[in-house]
Amino acid sequence: MDHFLYRNGSLHAEDVPISDIAAAVGTPFYVYSTATLLRHFTLFDEALDGMDHMVCYAMKAASNQAILMTLAQAGAGMDVVSVGEYLRAKAAGVPGERIVFSGVGKTADEIRVALEGGIRQFNVESEPEMEVLNAVALSLGKIAPITIRINPDVDARTHAKIATGKSENKFGIPIARAREVYARAGAMPGLDVVGIDVHIGSQLTELEPFETAYRKVAELTEALRADGHHIRRLDLGGGLGIPYEQSNSAPPLPLDYGALIKRKVGHLGCEIEIEPGRLIAGNAGIMVSAVIYVKQGEGRDFLIIDGAMNDLIRPAMYDAHHDIVPVVEPRPGIERQPYDIVGPVCESGDTFARQRAMPPLTAGDLVAFRSAGAYGAVMSSEYNTRPLIPEVLVKGDQFAVIRPRPTFDEIIKRDTIPEWL
Ligand SMILES: Cc1ncc(COP(=O)(O)O)c(C=O)c1O
Ligand SMILES: N[C@@H](CCCC[NH3+])C(=O)O
Fold it and tell me: Which pairing describes strands 10-13 and 391-395: parallel, antiparallel, or unpaired?
């Protein structure tokens, strides 16, 4: 169920006209639908029905505290990758027992904060990290619950920049060395080895790579149990993809993914964690932008909009496709024309789409980038001294700004000038 639909000829977020939000907050902005966030969380939660499980939302996808609170109130845990995310999740009211800590470069300071504040488990990614974690835990008189992230050497068949499960990627420990590393962990008094972690990549559009990875995890669970480890929890990561192009065939559904998990690891009797990010937030958010100019180029028309690569970097970074639709519903049968849709930033890479067929648009018209809820606002920057754009949350017929646009004064005052200058 899409919560961004045309009604009476204009695009809505749930029951709120996008043009009302634009009038209130200015453009560009991100807007999220509470109903979509909750629906996607529930799809995963129900897909694991009958198993002891926790859906730990990968908050890197969209980390506004209002989003975290919405999901946490529905029962979500959180997957964090930095102490900043940990503190943000805590600030949104998520208890430490519902937070898992992933990431290849956790520092001793980050580990200390999480151990002191409470944590469900650390997903350890290397032997040096294991040693630091053990030392910090002992210094605090605590025992740190851990899984070890294994790298199963599986091709996730996704964009190379977001594949994480091949042996050449920096993530996890090689599965071939897992028994040896678990033996070391098991002997460390500051660690409690509770399970295994795996995450092979993002925007997976087929189940087969998950199937291979989870088969390897199941085999390893049995081997480690035979070695005497009390493996009782499996963190199976995130990564299930979303349809970015409405014209394309859709990736597998959470229900199919849940059934696969049951088939592959259900017999082991472990508690299951999953860490979906994109599928929960991606299609729960859009970015809205206004046309500044329509410019005639050599053999092409440029639609110059007020959103730019600093606001939504996915097209520049991964050549990602986002559907872009006018906020005013095009008349049926209207002739479309090709535009290069670009932002105002001083780079040719600041291009959202080339020769994209759109109904004719003019200055002031609003356009919406679909599927922009995940890895959108969180990856934005102030490049070109462009303020971070506001985030808005809709629930039914209500909307609220959940991160305001900073003023230029606020941005400029952040710099400090040395007294010797
Ligand atoms: C450890 C970990 N868990 C979960 C995720 C979430 O992935 P996705 O947003 O593709 O579901 C990521 C990002 O790929 C990750 O690195
Ligand atoms: N930033 C990436 C996803 C990275 C996933 C990281 N765990 C994207 O926009 O597709």
Answer: unpaired
CA-CA distance, 106 to 119, in Å (whole number)? 14
340 in any annotated domain: yes
Q: Is residue 216 situated within a structural domain?
A: yes
Q: Which helix (H) or strand (E) holds 147?
A: strand 144-151
pLDDT recorded at residue 212: 98
Residues 12 and 22 in one domain: yes
With respect to residue 141, please indicate whether it lies within any of the assigned structural domains.
yes
pLDDT band at 153 (very low <50, low <70, confident <90, very high): very high
First to last CA, the chain: 58
Q: Is 202 in the pocket of ligand 2 (CB under 6 A)?
A: yes
Task: Quote the pLDDT of residue 24.
Answer: 98
Partners of 133 in beta bridges: none
Last-in-domain residue among 281, 307, 334: 281
Position 386 scores a pLDDT of: 98
Whether 274 and 337 map to the same domain: the answer is no
Question: What pLDDT score does 248 carry?
Answer: 72
For ligand 2, say whether the CB of 294 is within 6 Å of any of its atoms: no
Please tell me the distance from the alpha carbon of residue 109 to that of residue 170, in angstroms, as a whole number: 22
Over residues 357-362, mean pLDDT: 98
Which of 288, 257, 291, 304 lies closest to 373, judged by CA?
288
197 and 325 share one domain: no
Can you tell me the ipTM of this complex? 0.99
Per-residue pLDDT band at 26 (split at 50, 70, 90):
very high
Ligand 2 atom index nearest CA of 314: 9
Give residue 340 CA to ligand 2 midpoint distance, Å.
Answer: 25
- Residues, the chain, total? 421
Say how many C-beta atoms besides its own lie within 10 A of residue 230's C-beta.
12
Same domain, 139 and 200: yes
Catalytically active residues, by annotation: 346
Check if 375 has its Cβ closer than 6 Å to any atom of ligand 2: yes
- Residue 277 inside a domain? The answer is yes
Q: Are strands 191-197 and 144-151 parallel, antiparallel or unpaired?
A: parallel
Domain containing 226 equals 34-281
Dist. CA 108–CA 131, nearest whole Å: 10
Predicted local distance difference test score (pLDDT) of residue 257: 98
